[in-house]
Amino acid sequence: MEEDQLLLENQVCFPIYSVSRLITKAYQPHLDKMGITYPQYLVLMVLWEKDKLPVNSISKQLMLKTNTLSPLLKRMEKMELLERRRSPQDERSVIVELTKKGLKLKNMAKPIPGELVNILLKENIQLSEVIQLKNILNEWIEILSKNNKD
Amino acid sequence: MEEDQLLLENQVCFPIYSVSRLITKAYQPHLDKMGITYPQYLVLMVLWEKDKLPVNSISKQLMLKTNTLSPLLKRMEKMELLERRRSPQDERSVIVELTKKGLKLKNMAKPIPGELVNILLKENIQLSEVIQLKNILNEWIEILSKNNKD
DNA sequence: TAAGTTTATATCGTGCACGACACAAAATTA
DNA sequence: TAATTTTGTGTCGTGCACGATATAAACTTA
Fold first, then answer.
1. Does the structure show a pLDDT above 80 at B18?
2. Comparing C-alpha atoms, which of A38, A40, A15 is closest to residue A27?
3. CB B121 within 8 A of CB B127
4. What pLDDT shows up at residue B40?
5. Which residue ranges make up each domain of chain B?
6. What is the mean pLDDT of residues B104-128?
7. In B, residues 43-62, which contact A (CB 8 Å cutoff)?
8. Which letter, b or e, does each residue of A12-41 get, where b requires 16 or more Cβ atoms within 10 Å of its Cβ?
9. pLDDT band at B149 (very low <50, low <70, confident <90, very high)
10. What residues contact residue B2 under an 8 Å CB cut-off, 6+ apart?
11. In whole angstroms, how large is the CA radius of gyration of chain B?
12. Tell me, what's the pLDDT at B32?
């Protein structure tokens, strides 16, 4: 019984890990056109929604620590997608702001989410199933984050 | 409408990506006791189920290419968890076999899956929900792999 | 105000993932 | 059998993730 749980086939964790990588791959061709990676796309989505945010705020939304974000943001600055500058109010804080180039990519990105959903719909996946999955996952995020206090 | 889809909050992909990382973190303390990482744990699970497999077979089961697996397996060989040796039948093929140390870890690993499930049950997540999630994800794996022919 | 603490960001080292490419053994075809 | 293609594994370079640690600014407290 405990034995069965050690079968790859019976684990939930492994499918999550696999689907996560497969989705990144599904995004790849679209992101390639924009010359960005999936984590960079996530940063852009945050900033498209609300610009001029401190690293801190991006960190919380994406649940990525600054030791991951700092180099990522630096790369994006080198690509001229955004600019980083110390806040005058609080010299510890770094404010991230999109450049025109970074803002412009939003138009290219608009069709992307729909195209992934189309792949699923084409295979007779119900939209309700997508919503349901999203709800379950968000519930899990809450629980697993709690168990992992930052 | 297309605009809304670009909100982080409305994406399914982001929660999958987050939960995947959170689960790895939840496993971490247990894996630390064994001195291994999550991908290494996955390799062990494959070999605990059936030992003496070519890299190829592990690659397919974990959906990881050999350029990821080769260094991973080499690290595990250095840790004396497994041994790699060319197949006499087909000199191209490398057979991976667990050492005693690698086999022994199975006992330590047995309680792990149950403990993660316990975290969820403690928060009133139904076991049926876990099964349901697993089924949806396996369906998606099938679809997304098809769209991404190796 | 001086000393200690917290906060915001960053550096460093390690281990995945993966695309591009290399290479030898095996299989196929001419 | 010789030439070509396929197969199985590997190296290399890049970009995450993340634990441990560093550092300076801001805040708290004595």
1. yes
2. A38
3. yes
4. 98
5. 33-105, 111-150
6. 93
7. 45-46, 48-49, 61
8. bbbbbbbbbbbbbebbeebbeebebbbbbb
9. low
10. A110, A111, A114
11. 18
12. 97
- Asked if B69 and B59 count as a contact pair (C-beta separation under 8 A), the reply is yes
CB contact under 8 A, B144 and A16: no
Choose among B91, B37, B38, B39: nearest CA to B65: B39
Consecutive H or E run containing B95: strand B94-98
**Helix-helix angle B100-109:B13-34, to 10 degrees:** 120
Residue B123 amino acid letter: E
Joined tokens for residue B65: 């290419």
Tell whether A107 is within 8 A of chain B (Cβ): no
3-class secondary structure, A95: strand
Provide the token pair at A122. 């084409």
Neighbours of A141 (CB within 10 A): 16
Of the candidates A54, A43, A49, which has an alpha carbon nearest to the alpha carbon of residue A85?
A54
- What average pLDDT does this structure show over A111-135? 92
Domain B33-105 adopts which CATH fold? Answer: Arc Repressor Mutant, subunit A (1.10.10)
A101 touches chain B (CB under 8 A): no
Q: Does domain A26-110 have CATH number 3.30.300.20?
A: no
Residues 62-91, chain A, touching B (beta carbon < 8 A): 63
For residue A98, how many other CB atoms are within 10 A of its CB?
21
Q: How far apart are the first and last CA of chain B?
A: 34
DSSP state of A7: S
